[in-house]
Amino acid sequence: MKKPLILCVLFISILTIFFPYFSKDMRSRPLFEKLGYTPHGKFYRAILGEFRWFMGDYLSFKSIIYYGGNVDKIKQGKFKDVEFYNLFETIQTSILLNPYNEDAYYFAQAAFTWNIGHAKDVNRLLKYVAKYRTWDFLPPFFIGFNYAYFLKDYDKAAVYYKKASAISHSELFTNLAARYFYEGGRTELGISYLKMMIKITRKKSVKKVYEIRLKALDAIYKIEQAIKKYEHKYHKKPQSIKELLNAGFLDEIPKDPYGGKFYIDKKGKVQTTSKLTFVKRKG
Amino acid sequence: MALIKLTIKHLIFDRIFLVLASFVLLFAFIPVFSYFSMRQLQEISITTSLTLNSFILLLMTLFGGTLVMWRDIERKYTYTVLSYPITRTNFILSKFFSLIIILFVITIINFAASIVVIHISASLYKSTLPILWLNIFAAFFMEFLKYTLLLGFIFLFASFSTSFFTPVFSTIAVFIAGNASQGIYDYIMKGSNELSHFSKLAAKLVYYVLPNFSSFDLISYAAYSLPIHIQSIVYTSVYFLLYLGAVLSLSIAVFNKRDFS
User: Fold this and answer.
1) pLDDT grade, residue B191 (50/70/90)?
2) Same domain for A282 and A213?
3) Distance (Å, whole) CA B154 – CA B149
4) A184 compared with B165, residue with greater pLDDT
5) Would the pTM count as exceeding 0.80?
6) In a shared domain, residues A129 and A143
7) Which residues from chain B sit within 8 angstroms of residue A203, using beta carbons?
8) Residues A43 and A126 both lie in one domain
9) Do B220 and A53 touch (CB under 8 A)?
10) Contacts with B, A 32-61, CB within 8 Å
11) Over chain A, what is the mean pLDDT?
12) What is the ipTM of this complex?
């Protein structure tokens, strides 16, 4: 009786000493091992039977957790350090397994459009989801937004905004689209979109990301409005934001929440040195 | 009837069976699991409840079926029972029905546990979809039918096999093939213009012979409150009765011919 007990205690003690080394090794493994390769959705779907629905949900959780763990790298614009390819494949498989899965398409829209520039691929996924979630206005709304904001295909955007309006029985989307098409307010469209996303987002961490971007777009919008007024009055483009300040069209230079500085480029467009990603802090 | 009672009693007190039944406790973790969701806690809890039920029923079917058939034969228990005035048909049917009763009771317990956990998850974040309890019950019941059919296969394989592994692994193979048959058939038929007449016929034959387990899957209807067509339920139920009848008759026929001496 005593011998096995002594052995057990010995093993536990060695394991306790060994575990930090083991854990360190796990942390140092290549990133793909953490998210992993996901077999193609069609293959999965064929063999999983009714377990496919759960597996679809599980894969979207896995992606969300992985993304959450790398959010600092994403904020700092270190996109190469994040396995975006595997992440997209995982979400794609998740959607193939459970096309009704709201988390999966919602996450795809949040993670792969703004900084990564995969609006076209996301739209492909969203169109697939929209075929199933016929009661949900969000997929056509997202598709329309992506076409307008990222892909600049306004005709297609109008088609999907109309679909979103028809499903939600709300004119909001068609009004939004109309305002965008006729007034050319890209920033305004982004602001409306973000306000809506903040309203319907549950996760605080995701909400925070949207709120910061909204702050930045609000600041850009403020400067754009000041430029318009300046042009109207002086019939020329301002060279810098300081000119707007001196002319009294701005009370103060708006702050970039990402830590960068706003400036007016040669084409007269408002830009920021942060490129709307968090500027790496020194030290 | 006495044999049914005795089999149920034996199974309930079996250690492996008790361990499997204790998986019901996992329902308590569903609200925690669904909390990871961004916007669909209710839908996740329904999907997970049905998946857990399916998983428990799968293990129960595989191990329960093997325990009552293979172990009894292995321990010469079957030989003793059959020396009493009881037909082999009655013997196999009694064993089968006692397991069906257990599967049904477990399904009901799981459904009751699901009602609680779905309510908890739904109260944490309001879904845009209503909870259709009838859909959820239908999905649970269809899972029960599915595993009853799978149990029929265990009995079929156990009726002629002398090893423990043949019925278990053959049934797992049938389970996988039965889940995949509809998807693969649809895929093949999509590109059917390029296929020869013989290949199409072969695909159709395999599709008809294999059990179609996808027809019992109502998880998406339950989780996303989609309308269930009564016609589909009726067709699936008729399919179930016919297929089970065929599998059980074959099992009885093989078992009747088996030499226990």
Assistant:
1) low
2) yes
3) 9
4) B165
5) no
6) no
7) 38
8) yes
9) yes
10) 42, 45-51, 53-54, 57, 61
11) 81
12) 0.72
